[in-house]
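ok trying this again, last paste got cut off
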Amino acid sequence: MARPRTTKLKEPVRMRFKKLANGSKSIYLDIYVDGKRSYEYLKLYILPELNANIKEQNRTTMAAAEKIKSQRIIQLTEDKASLRHVSKRAGILVSNWLDTYKEDREKNGARGMKIVRTLKRILELYRKGARMKDVNKEFVLGFTDFMRNDYRTPQGKPIAAFTQRSYFGIFNSALNAAVQADVIPDNPVNRLTPQERIKAPESKREYLSIDEIRTLIATECSHEIVKRAFMFSCYCGLRLSDVYALKWKDLVRDGDIWRVGIVMKKTATPNYLPLSKQATAWMPERGDAADSDNVFARLPKGQYLNDLIKAWAKKAGLSKHVTFHTSRHTFATMLLTLGADLYTVSKLLGHANVKTTQIYGKIVDQKKDDAVSRIDKAFE
C-alpha cells in the first residue's frame, strides 16, 4: 500500500546567504507573500571559522538571525489575521483618507495642516495608489526609508531629519485616527522598535553668556518693549507665549519677592515662579494699568519680533543666531552654570520631564570641558 503523500508547507520567510569577497556570508531574508517577493538584509555575517571563538560567534549570529526570521513570520501572520477583520473602508486610498483626516482636524480647530498635502505627495511617490489595507509594518518601514534616502524636494534637496519626523508624526496621527474610525484594525507604527522609528535629532540650544547679556544690555534696541521682554525672559525663562499672556494680576508680592502664577500655554500646566530682582527690573512701569492688562503690552508678534531681536544682536556685535527663545535657553544655562541643580531648573522651566532639561546639562558639561582644555592650550 502506497504511503500517503505529505505536503510540506512553504515558509513565507526563508533565510538566505550571500557570499562576500572576503569569504564571509551576509545573511538576508527572502520574504514571499501573496505573489510578491522582497528581501531584508539583516547586517549579520557568518565569518570563516578559523578558530573556536569565531565558531561560537557564528553560532550566536545564527541564533539572532533565526529569532528575527521568527519575528517576521509572526508579523506576517498577524497582518494576514488582521486583514480578515478589516472593514470595507480599508479599500480607501491612503491619499483620500489623509484628505478626510485633514478635514476632520481642521473642523476641530487644528492649524498648520498644510503639511498633509506634502505628506500625500511623498506617499504617492513612495507607493502610488496605495490603499489603507496595504499599510502594514513593511509599508511603514519602507516609507521611512524612502524619506531618509530617496525622496527629494521639488528643488532637488533631501529633507531634514526634523522635517522627516514631522511627516512621520502626522502619518502616525492619521493612522491612529483610522483605527478609531474602524478603517484599519491597528496602527502598524505601534509595532516598530525604537530603532526603527524616525527620531528627531538633538536640537542645538543657542544661548548667551553673561558677558553677551551685558553687551546686549549696553546696546540700544529700536523697540524698548522688545528689549525689556527679552531681558525679562533671560532672567525668568518664560516662553514667548507666556510673556504675551502675562497680566498684572498674575504677579503677587511675597515679602521681598515677586512671584508669577501662570498656566503655561504650551503644556497647559500651572506654575508658580519666583522672580529675581533682575527680572522685575526689566518689567515696564505699571502706571494706571488694570489687573487684566498685559504686562508687556504692544510687544510685536510673529517674525517681526525676531527680526527686531536679530537687528539688535547684530548691532551689539553678536554673531549668534538670536531669537526670543534664546532668552529661555540663556536662563537655563545660566542657572546651571551658577550651580543650580537640574531638577530645580526643570521645575522653573515648567518641564513635565526632567529629561527635557538634560540637554542644558550637556551644554554646561561642554563648557566645563572647554574651560579645562584651555589649560592644555596655555602650555602647548
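PB: full thing came through this time. The domain at 88-191 is CATH 1.10.150.130 (DNA polymerase; domain 1).
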